[in-house]
Amino acid sequence: MRVLSIVHEAGPTGGGGIFERAVPERGHRLDRWVAADGEAPPGDPADWDAVMVFGGAMHPDQDAEHPWLAGEARFLESALAGRVPLLGVCLGAQLIARAAGGLVGPAGAPEVGWFEVSRTDGADDPVIGALPDRFRAFQWHYYTFELPAGAVQLASSAAARQAYRLGDRVWGIQFHAEVDRTMLDHWLREGEEELPKPVEELRAETDRYLPGWNAHGRMLCDAFLDEAARLSS
User: Fold this and answer.
1) Does pTM surpass 0.85?
2) 113 in the Ramachandran plot: left (φ > 0), alpha (ψ -120 to 50) or beta?
3) Which structural domain, as residue segments, surrounds residue 156?
4) Catalytic residue (one of 178, 216, 221, 227)
5) Which of 90, 111, 221, 227 is catalytic?
6) Tally of domains in the chain
7) Is 90 an active-site residue?
């Protein structure tokens, strides 16, 4: 199976973390498009059996500041039209919602750190159903999304929608299930001024929650790749 990873920052601290590593570990081919570099899309979305779209410091409606966002949105529109299995994470979930006609904009309150998330209608979902009913998730977002027409909300937190499914092969998650230790160490160091509590407290919470969170993230990623493989067979 051929999988495309769309990232918005080069290097290991801005990519797909454990999700990207899972692809070759399962024997699949991973291609990477750093959309924020301004490169043209690497091909037609139908060239891939699955596409994963990850986060970034920019917001999904900042086309004036980041002109490449419009091109990425068009790529995702083509992927949706071609029924390519999609998984969006944070900014990626917002961009997929935008490409599907949903509204995106500032959330009522930001979430930066570890927050409780509950599944709402995802127990039987082939991807979100891999997660427990309630879980502590790492978040770093200021924006949220409205559900596109036909989408089903699958999880939420006190502040925002957290997961949705659109049709039978598109998923978006607001929380960062892909993060690994390298990514979080970098984010907490570089974004310390944005933190709602002392960095030492968030590092202690990360020590406590990250091992279990990585296990949940890998289960979610495996569930998506399993579903993509089933749909492409």
Assistant:
1) yes
2) left
3) 2-232
4) 178
5) 90
6) 1
7) yes
